[in-house]
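Entry:
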Amino acid sequence: MTTRDVVFPAGRQELYERNRYSPAIRSNGFLFVSGQVGSREDGSPEPDLEKQVHRAFDNLNAILAPAGCTFDDVVDVTVFIVDPEEKFERIWNGVVPEHWGNAPYPTVTAVGVTWLYGFEFEIKVIAKLPEASGN
């Protein structure tokens, strides 16, 4: 079996080890990022919806950066939203454009869910690694 090439954001490795998953794995020229939520440093949810979405993107960027990526390198996005009928417009048209960048945009799948461990929003991405990384 191949050893996984894991990417950890600064200062949060203990949180991922406690929850028993990798924040991101480099493989075959891509970075596969686990779902990121709007968690505070201790792992608890940010209570305000808009702030929670901003924090989810901050947490995502904290994983992309050590791999040499930005959101511009993201090719595929999956978002999970609790109660999307009520919250989708606030999230998608209110907060997401601040983090999304310019066209052409990545592919997107949006999924409505009933539970996210106390969170309202989660974002999972696949990014193309920079060519210079050799992956």
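Residues 49-64 form the longest helix (16 residues).
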